[in-house]
Task: inverse folding
């Protein structure tokens, strides 16, 4: 239980700062990480898996409606 309390303390409240909350969640879930290049982020394996699933679903929806993915 103590570990769960600690995890929650590290995440900014969504009501206080939405952008910081979102960044905290993404980093805590290990979906991406910061690069040594300013402004660049590295998509980690779980983040990339989510991206591939989004692409797959969108591609199927585009094909259903006759649109072309470009």
Result:
């Amino acid at each position: 239980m103590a570990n769960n309390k600690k995890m929650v303390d590290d995440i900014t409240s969504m009501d206080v700062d939405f952008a910081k909350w979102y960044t905290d969640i993404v980093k805590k879930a290990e979906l991406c990480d910061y690069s040594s290049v300013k402004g660049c982020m590295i998509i980690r394996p779980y983040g990339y898996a989510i991206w591939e699933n989004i692409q797959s679903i969108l591609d199927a929806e585009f094909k259903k409606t006759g649109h072309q993915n470009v």
